[in-house]
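Hi R.,

As promised, here are both runs. First protein below:
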Amino acid sequence: MDSNHGGKEGLVGAQANEVEIDIFEFAERGEQVPHARTYRVRIDGETVKVQTPTPTGEELLHTVGKRPCAFELIAEFRHHENCVIEPHEKVDLLRHGLKGFITAHKEIVTIFINNDPYKIERGEHTVAQILHKVGQTPEGYVLLEEKGGPPLPVPPTVPVNICGCEVFFTQPQSGASS
C-alpha cells in the first residue's frame, strides 16, 4: 500500500468493503474507487450516503429531495465532462473519474392530470392550456389542483406556475354535460 494514502481512503482489497468511500476524493486523486458498504456522493455540493455502487438516477435525486418530473441529474467527471442520467438509468459509482452530480430544472416537465402524466413547458400557463392537455375546456370543466390537501379549484383567470410534478384533476362544470 502506498504510504501516502493512509487511513480509510488508502484501503484496498477485502478491507475496502468495510469502509465508507467518498467518490469525489478518489476522482480528485485519479484513483479507481474500490467497493465499499457505503459511498459518499456529492449532489449539488451536498454530501449524501448511498448503500449501493449502482443507484438509479431517480434514487440519487430522491436523496436530495428532488423528483425526476421536475429535475434532471447530471454526472460530473474529473476532466470536465458531464452526462445526463435518466431516472431509471443505473449509475456506476465506481466509474473512474466520477466526481459527483448536479441537478438542473427541466425545461419540459411532467405534470399529472387525472393521475396520468403529461409533458409541458415549465413556466406560467392558463387553465385552458392545462385542460387542453386532456381535451377539455374551461367552459365545460373545472381544473382542481392538489397541494398537500384536498384538490381545490384553480381560478380560470389566474395563471398557473408550472415547476414540474404538479397534480391536477378535472371535473365537469356544474350544469355542464360531460
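And here is the second one, sequence first, then its C-alpha cells:
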Amino acid sequence: MPEIFIGTEMLGRGALTRGQLRWNYCAMFPDVYAPRATAPSLWRNTVGAWLWSGRIGVIAGRAAAALHGALWVDATTPIEMIWRSTRPPSGIVVRNERIEADEIVEVNKMPVTSPARTALDLARHLPRDVAVMHLDALARATGVTACDALSLAERYPRARGLRRSEVALSLTDPGAQSPKETWLRLLLIDAGLPAPRTQIRLTDGVNEAFIDMGYDEPMVGLDYDGQHHSVDRSRYVHDIGRAELIERHGWIDIHVVAEHSRRLIIHRVSDALARRGYQLKLHSGS
C-alpha cells in the first residue's frame, strides 16, 4: 500500500474496503488519501497534489524548488502546478500557463519545472523579497543563474509578471545561507548601497573565517547571527577565534541580530563606512 494514493484506484483493485479507507486514512485532496498517522509535510502535499491532477500536472513554484534541493520552503506552502483546472482545492494553486518540453524534468517520477523555469516562475509570481529568498536558495542548490531564467522569459513576452521577475532575478545571490541573510542584503541595497559581496573568505594560512557579506574596499562586513550563536557553547567559542582573525585582517565586522531595527542597522553601517572615509547618505527607512 503506497503512503499516498488515489482512493478510487485502491477500492477498484480491492486493496481496501470502504470501511478501511474511512477509518484508517484521511483525505488530503479530493479522492487523494494518506494514513491518519502520517504527519503533514511538503513532500506529502506535493505528491498528493500531483495525484489529484491525475498524474498530469507539472509541479512548479516553491514546491518545485524544494524538489530541486532548495531549503527554506515552509511545509504549509500551497503546491503550485502548471495544469488546467478551474476549481483546485485548498492547498493547491493551478496556473494555466504555457510550458515547453525542455522546461520539464523528472524528479522522483513526477514532472517538475526545470531549475530555470522554476526560477522564472518564483520571480514572476512572488513579492520581491520572498522571491529573492527562494531564488537565493534555489541558486545555491542547483547553480541556476538569473541569465538562465531570463533566457526563458524571451519565449513568453506576454507572460504575467515579467517586469517584476527582472528585478527579483537581478538580486539573486547563491551566497546567502539563510533567509535572514537575504533580508539583510536587500536591506543594504534598499538603503542605497551596492550589492555586497557574499561569503567573504579570510585566512591566515591555517585558520579561516567567512563574513556573510560586505564591501572589500572599505573592509566593512556584516554577519547575521541567529540564536545558535548564543545558545551553542562550541559555536560561541569558535566565534571568539573567528572575531580575532577578522580583526587582524583589518575588517570592521557588524553583527546583526533579530532585535536590531532597520534604522539601527543602517546607522551602524553608515558609522563604519564613515570611519573608513566613506561619507554616504543612506536611506534608513522606518
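A quick note on the second one: Residues 173 and 267 are 24 Å apart (CA to CA). Let me know what you think.

Best,
J.
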